[in-house]
Structure formats: C-alpha cells, structure tokens
Amino acid sequence: MQAVSALVLLLVFCGVSGCGVDEKEQKNLTMTLPSDTPPHTVELLRRVLPKIEAHCPGLVKYWSALEFQQVEPDRPYHVGAGTHLPDWPQVTWLVFQVKDENQLVPGKYRAHGHVCRIGIDADGTALIVPKEPCQSLFFDRPAALADQDFIVDIRD
Questions:
Q1: Looking at residue 17, what DSSP letter applies?
Q2: Origin, by domain of life (predicted)?
Q3: What is the pLDDT of residue 2?
C-alpha cells in the first residue's frame, strides 16, 4: 500500500504543480517504493517532495536520464560543523543511476554513469547531495563545492 501511496503522491504532485517545467516539457516523476518502506519515510517524502522539486531543478529537467534505484531510510550520516544539523543525523537517501548513454545531461557535469543520491534529514529540514557530478546534475549548474557534500537548508 505504501508503494502505491507514494507513487500516487508523486504523480498527483507533478500533475498539479507541473514540477517546475513548461507544459510541453513536463515529465512524470515516478518512483515505486518497496512495500516495506517505513510509514514515517513515506510521510517524510510526502512532506519534502515539493522542496526537493524547488531546490533541485535538474532532478525534474533530467528525469528521463535517471533510473530510480531505491530508498535507503534512516541511515546515520556524519555532517560536521557549519550547518543546523547535528553531527550524526538520520538521513533518508533517494538513490538514482544516471544512464551512461543519454544526450540530455550536459557532458560538463560529468554525471553519466554515476550513482547519485539526495539525502533528506529526518526532520525534513535539509537536503544533502554528495559528489560534484551529482550536485551539478541535481542543481543544474556546475558544482561550487569541490570534494564536499552540498547541504541545503530547506526550513521554511
């Protein structure tokens, strides 16, 4: 049931909001979550998806060049100083494979073939994107932070 509710959530969200793209460029973002996905993870995704869409325009723009692999709920993650997050927050990861053969993702992003992740802290207040190529892809601009995870504060 949770896979269905999350899938329906994504389809409804994109159908209503347009996912930030022109109508003729609109894509359906669909992810099928396993049936054993914890309910709190489904709820977290339901709350944070609009913020992911707003902060990660490349996720929508390059959606057809990505294959959703899995969701990894509640993983401890070391952040360090300089953010509003504790040192070891619990993070839920959305994992994608960037297709090797695609003409959509700019070559300058160097993302082809990479496994890219978007992390969401348990409170839904931050997005975490490791790896420069994935930062470039998801934010649709060359990565600004070399050899660092990019953490975006998404608190209202």
A1: H
A2: Bacteria
A3: 52
pLDDT averaged over consecutive 10-residue blocks of the chain (156 residues)?
46 42 52 91 94 94 95 91 84 96 91 96 95 95 81 91
Cβ contact 95:115 at 8 Å: yes
Contact 19, 60 (CB under 8 A): yes
Range of the domain at 71: 2-153
Domain count, the chain: 1
Using an 8 Å Cβ cutoff, are 143 and 136 in contact? yes
Tell me the CB-side half-sphere exposure of residue 6, using CA atoms within 13 A. 24
Tell me which residue has tokens 């990565």. Answer: 143
Which helix (H) or strand (E) segment is 8 a member of?
Answer: helix 2-17
Query: Count of CB atoms within 10 A of residue 67's CB?
Result: 11
Burial class of residue 33 (count of CB atoms within 10 Å of its CB; 0-12, 13-18, 19+): buried
Burial environment of residue 17 by CB neighbours within 10 A (0 to 12, 13 to 18, 19 or more): middle
